Amino acid sequence: MENLIRGRKEITVRKFILISFVVVLIAVNLFYFGIVTNHKNLDEVKVLMEEHLVEKGYSKGEFDVEVKYHWENKLFGYNPYNISVTYKDEPDVTYFYDYDDTNNKVRLGGVGPMKGKEDKNFKHAE
């Protein structure tokens, strides 16, 4: 009976070691292939977004830009950069932009009215 209990404990320990090894291996690969760490500086993307808006005729005081990086989006093949722009004269609407890191360009990805805005005539849609 003791041998049976000892044998089960050894199998459980082996499973734990194997699972731990696989988890560490996956984490190392994510970092190695740059999925988690290899991304542009968020300030660079923000500056690029601001330059894009200035080229469209806006001044820097007319809008707020927020950039976030989500590595899990890149893992699943989506755009990892979430860029949201809110204009001072339209604070209840958020404009979402996509960053294309291969061409180093931004483009409008969508518009999200906030607080139940009924009017769908957005002032700053491109």
β-strand amount: 25-35%
Strand runs, count: 4
Please state how the strands of the largest beta sheet are arranged side by side: 1-2-3-4
Q: What is the count of helical runs?
A: 3
Distance between the termini: 75 Å
* Residues in helices, as a percent range: 25-40%
Form type: elongated
**In sequence order, what are the helices and strands, one letter per element?**
HHEHEEE
- How many strands, which pairing sense, and closed or not: the largest β-sheet? 4 strands, antiparallel
Structural class call reads alpha+beta
C-alpha Rg (nearest Å) = 24 Å
Low-confidence stretches: none
Salient structural properties:
126 residues; alpha+beta; 2 domains; four-stranded antiparallel beta sheet; 4 strands; elongated
What does this structure look like?
40% of the residues lie in helices and 27% in strands. With 126 residues, it is of the alpha+beta class. The protein has two domains: 33 residues; 72 residues. The N and C termini lie far apart (75 Å). The model has no long low-confidence stretch (mean pLDDT 77).
Secondary-structure map:
Layout: H1 2-32, H2 42-55, E1 63-69, H3 71-75, E2 81-87, E3 90-100, E4 105-113
How would you concisely characterize the structure shown here?
The protein is α+β, with helices and mostly antiparallel strands. The chain has helices at residues 2-32, 42-55, 71-75, and strands at 63-69, 81-87, 90-100, 105-113. Helices cover 40% and strands 27% of the residues.
